[in-house]
């Protein structure tokens, strides 16, 4: 006959394992979203997007648009995506979340490249594709933020 102590170990062991796994995700998510590295990258992304906005509202002369886009948007955003790809979360849950961010950023970069093609060729088809790609990137980013909020809530992580 199995004694009560052994029986209680078998009953509690799965719950202990679940709690340990949950803490791993919680710790990983907390260090991911509240890290200086991700916060600095997010700030860099906002600054680059602000530069792109200058093109869309006409602050940049049309003759200077291609060079401005390449120098102030595409080059720094390519670096941003590369930096983003170096982040390696420890858990699969946070890694999957981070992959959504990379997908959104890569799609946005593709939209910037298509915008550059539009400026070079002035083709309306290219601009439509560029706009659609940038809209898709925004949608992917929204999905990332929703998933981040859900994961943070599920694991009691406060996003600063």
What does the model show?
The chain is mainly alpha-helical. The chain has helices at residues 4-33, 36-56, 65-85, 92-121, 124-154. Helix 4 runs antiparallel to helix 5 (124-154). The longest helix has 31 residues, at 124-154. The radius of gyration is 22 Å and the shape is elongated. The N and C termini lie far apart (53 Å). Residues 6-10 and 15-22 have low confidence and may be disordered. Keywords: Signal. It comes from Shouchella lehensis G1.
Write a concise keyword list for the protein shown above.
160 residues; 5 helices
Largest sheet: none
Tally of DSSP β-strands: 0
- List the secondary-structure elements in sequence, H or E: HHHHH
- In terms of structural class, how would the helical and strand content be classed? mainly alpha
Extract low-pLDDT stretches: 6-10, 15-22
Helix content: over 70%
Task: Specify the overall morphology.
Answer: elongated
Number of domains: 1
Nutshell version of this structure?
The protein is mainly alpha-helical. The chain has 5 helices and no strands.
Question: Secondary-structure map with pairings?
Answer:
Blueprint: H1 4-33, H2 36-56, H3 65-85, H4 92-121, H5 124-154
Helix pairs in contact: 2-3, 3-4, 4-5
Signal peptide: 1-19
Keywords: Signal
Protein name: Lipoprotein
